[in-house]
């Protein structure tokens, strides 16, 4: 391919609004251009990378027995009403009407669509398991699109859905897909972790996230020093080694705590450790009040709370809702003497507390010497792990230490169970002729997000450094001066040698200075650069490996052997 025929609009400087390295480099190197906030045009080089990633995905996924379909991006809202997600999915859902005022959504994911499809077609266990997948554009109305392709409103995603007759079939598909995903991310050259994740708005359980290690990542990955455990921060667990003091229970006492509302302020005012306080936070779970309790030195993990409650929608109560249910302002609320309609859920740390301090449900007052069970009911079924872990905490094995790093979520797999099939009455007849709901799994990869994740890990100060498996071309062929007959002739010979060897190349045939060509070559980031220069008359070219800068002079007859060695290094 001649570079003069390509559309590669490079930039000399980083755009002011581009924060992430990958965003900066893909803009500067002419891979993408922003159309609107969170919406991008993929330029020719990016399209080539996307096609390579998609080819790898298709090859590995179809090895599991999955088959490709293409479902519509414009989805009737009736399907989302049927699942209940039209109202609970949140503001990220694009909603629109057609000319007949019928409601539609732009698909952020396709659980409803695929379940509707399968319920009308699969009626017997003999046709199970079945896994359908697609690679499609998805839409989510992100409040703050940022970091280029890492958080967009329109993006390319591979989403797959399995339907099984029993749990063993689901397990087999789940593990086969996890293995395929590992192969995909190994092939594209990513450093990643497979971690315990939250199913979120998808529903279901037994969730695994694939996270590419990167400082710009918005996810916090919690892992142990022995690498036996890794989880998303929202799902991570620890062992609380705090040993409470052994003391007799004292009489409940109300004390004035003027101008003290936060844990730190109350602890300072009463001159006690934060571990002596019970933090009380009111949430609204599917419209019902829930008071969550935790020891004062921890923070409440709302994801764990939502999962424990099996709620579709959970948010912290507003100031007005707090006053409505607890007759007190935020900072003065507690579990003692509250209305029976308010469900109380406590973190495990609360059960060990003796003579604790809680809000008195009266402005500027707290209760001291509060004891769970004596002063407020605390049923065993309402006690769970609600806490965010902290770096340096002890892992669940009791000996390892928890560490934090940042990561980009690149894929997620879930066991959905019958969350959608029961709602949609997607049933099949089992071996005994009994009607059963299909059992589902869901498997997603952020395809366009992979571009950013790869560039975050494979780049330097000069530009992108593509692994060969996904590079838009194998070779960047740069003749210094095509007006020189010997250079022009050797360039043509090398193009034919590369073509015969099955290697792809981009020939910079532009009338630019060598310095410009070299700088843009490093920015674009193809694995190998071949320079045809002053030794063209001798049939000698310069070959450079982009990743390491290693540079050798090679006769054209030895070129393919050297390239194969260099390309093998670049493929790792």
What's the topology here?
Elements: H1 21-28, E1 32-36, E2 39-42, H2 44-62, E3 67-68, E4 74-76, H3 77-83, H4 85-88, E5 94-97, E6 103-106, H5 111-119, E7 130-139, E8 154-164, H6 167-187, E9 192-196, E10 205-213, E11 219-224, E12 230-232, E13 253-256, H7 263-270, E14 278-285, E15 288-295, H8 302-309, E16 314-316, H9 319-326, E17 343-347, E18 356-359, E19 365-370, E20 383-384, E21 402-417, E22 427-429, E23 435-437, E24 439-446, H10 447-457, E25 459-460, E26 463-464, E27 475-479, H11 485-500, E28 505-507, H12 514-524, E29 528-532, E30 540-545, E31 551-555, H13 559-570
Parallel strand pairs: 3-7, 15-17, 17-20, 27-28, 27-29
Antiparallel strand pairs: 1-2, 4-6, 5-6, 7-8, 8-24, 9-10, 10-21, 11-12, 11-21, 13-19, 14-15, 14-16, 18-19, 21-24, 22-23, 25-26, 29-30, 30-31
Helix pairs in contact: 1-10, 2-6, 2-10
């Amino acid at each position: 391919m001649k570079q003069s025929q390509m559309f590669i609009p490079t930039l000399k400087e980083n755009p002011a609004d581009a924060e992430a390295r990958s965003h900066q480099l893909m803009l500067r190197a002419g891979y993408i251009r922003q159309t609107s906030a969170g919406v991008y045009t993929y330029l020719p080089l990016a399209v080539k990378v996307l096609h390579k990633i998609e080819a790898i995905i298709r090859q590995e996924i179809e090895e599991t027995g999955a088959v490709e379909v293409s479902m519509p991006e414009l989805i009737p809202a009736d399907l989302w009403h049927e699942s209940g997600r039209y109202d609970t999915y949140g503001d990220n859902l694009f909603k629109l009407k057609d000319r007949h005022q019928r409601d539609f959504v732009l698909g952020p994911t396709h659980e409803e669509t695929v379940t509707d499809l399968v319920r009308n077609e699969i009626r017997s266990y003999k046709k199970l398991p079945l896994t359908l997948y697609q690679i499609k554009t998805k839409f989510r109305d992100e409040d703050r699109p940022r970091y280029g392709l890492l958080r967009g409103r329109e993006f390319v995603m591979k989403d797959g859905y399995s339907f099984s007759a029993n749990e063993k079939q689901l397990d087999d598909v789940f593990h086969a897909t996890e293995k395929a995903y590992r192969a995909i991310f190994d092939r594209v050259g990513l450093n990643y972790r497979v971690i315990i994740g939250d199913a979120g708005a998808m529903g279901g359980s037994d969730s695994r996230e694939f996270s590419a290690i990167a400082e710009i990542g918005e996810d916090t990955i919690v892992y142990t020093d022995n690498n036996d455990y890794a989880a998303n921060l929202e799902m991570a667990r620890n062992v609380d080694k705090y040993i409470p003091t052994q003391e007799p229970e004292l009489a409940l006492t109300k004390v004035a705590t003027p101008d003290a509302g936060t844990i730190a302020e109350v602890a300072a005012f009463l001159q006690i450790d934060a571990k002596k306080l019970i933090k009380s936070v009111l949430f609204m779970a599917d419209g019902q009040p829930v008071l969550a309790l935790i020891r004062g030195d921890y923070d409440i993990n709302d994801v764990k709370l939502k999962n424990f409650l099996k709620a579709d929608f959970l948010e912290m109560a507003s100031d007005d809702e707090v006053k409505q249910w607890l007759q007190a302002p935020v900072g003065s609320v507690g579990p003692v003497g509250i209305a029976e309609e308010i469900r109380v859920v406590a973190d495990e740390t609360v059960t060990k507390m003796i003579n604790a301090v809680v809000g008195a449900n009266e402005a500027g007052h707290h209760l001291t010497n509060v004891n769970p069970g004596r002063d407020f009911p605390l049923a065993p079924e309402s006690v769970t792990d609600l806490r965010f872990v902290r770096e340096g905490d002890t892992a669940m094995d009791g000996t390892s230490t928890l560490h934090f790093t940042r990561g980009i979520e690149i894929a997620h797999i879930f066991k959905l169970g019958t969350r959608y099939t029961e709602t949609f009455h997607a049933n099949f007849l089992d071996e005994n002729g009994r009607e059963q709901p299909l059992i589902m799994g869901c498997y997603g990869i952020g395809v366009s997000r992979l571009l950013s994740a790869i560039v975050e890990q494979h780049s330097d100060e000069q530009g992108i450094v593509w692994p060969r498996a996904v590079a838009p071309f194998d070779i960047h062929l740069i003749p210094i001066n095509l007006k020189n007959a010997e250079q022009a002739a050797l360039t043509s010979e090398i193009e034919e040698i590369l073509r015969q060897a099955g290697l792809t190349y981009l020939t910079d045939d532009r009338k630019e200075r060598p310095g410009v060509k070299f700088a843009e070559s490093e920015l674009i980031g193809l694995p190998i650069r071949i320079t045809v220069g002053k030794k063209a008359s001798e049939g000698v070219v310069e070959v450079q490996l982009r990743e390491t800068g290693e540079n050798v002079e090679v006769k054209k007859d030895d070129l393919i052997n050297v390239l194969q060695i260099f390309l093998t290094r670049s493929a790792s």
